[in-house]
Amino acid sequence: MTADFAAHHPQAGLLLPVIAVTLGGALGAINGLLVAYGRISPLIATLGTMSLYRGVTYIYAHGQEVTASRLPHWVLAFVDLRIAGVPALVLLSAIVVGMTAFFLRHLPLGRRIYAVGSNATASLFCGLRTERVVLFAYILCGVMCGFAGLLYAARVGTVTVVLASGWELSSLAAAVLGGISVAGGSGSVIGAALGAILLSMIDNGLVLLHIPEFWRIFVQGCAIVLAIAADGAVARQVRLALRAQRIARMP
Known about the structure:
- By secondary structure, the protein is an all-alpha fold.
- It is built from eleven helices and two strands; from the N terminus they run ααααββααααααα.
- It has helices at about 1-10, 15-35, 40-60, 75-80, 90-105, 110-120, 120-125, 130-155, 165-175, 190-210, 215-250, and strands at about 80-85, 85.
- A hairpin with a 2-residue loop joins strand 1 (about 80-85) and strand 2.
- Helix 1 (about 1-10) runs antiparallel to helix 2 (about 15-35), helix 2 (about 15-35) runs antiparallel to helix 8 (about 130-155) and helix 9 packs across helix 10 (about 190-210).
């Protein structure tokens, strides 16, 4: 939708990022309302809305695409911009990752997100308004997705309704490889970013080795399974260690 708006309003300028993050935040808020207040499983809610949003996109696009020639020149020029030899997209991504990591680690609301992700029931008894925290987390996720979508659209140039389809598995693999616990409550944005870089390196290596596409998907699946298994093993060891400490302290 943002790309279509840019094609019809080439002088929009900085209004484009505002539109992208606003749309992303609104869609994220719908997910958050379903999970936090509707008590729907996060997996079911997000998979359902993913299909719904894609359907709306198909209806909106009417099978059309936004080609690079229709996008404003400055959008495409930004992709090729380099600062001290480093692509602007890389610097911008690093800034966003750093700001988000600082927010989650050092600000009260960020710590509450970790607390609710670790144990929502305990957080509720501690006085945290868990519904609001979950809703904010989904809105923040939507904002990030909207911004990332705008950058990716500028990078590829031609925007279609199937752009980035199938990235759900890649994003999950990147998060898990980066040390994000599937049970919630642990991990970091920096770890997820490093996981994405590692996954990109693996994909690039497979392409350079002329490995068929289905093997790339196979490798992603193996990486997810192994990372989740390792996460579960570490979690069990932590629980056993804490239990042993409690038993040792008993009179």
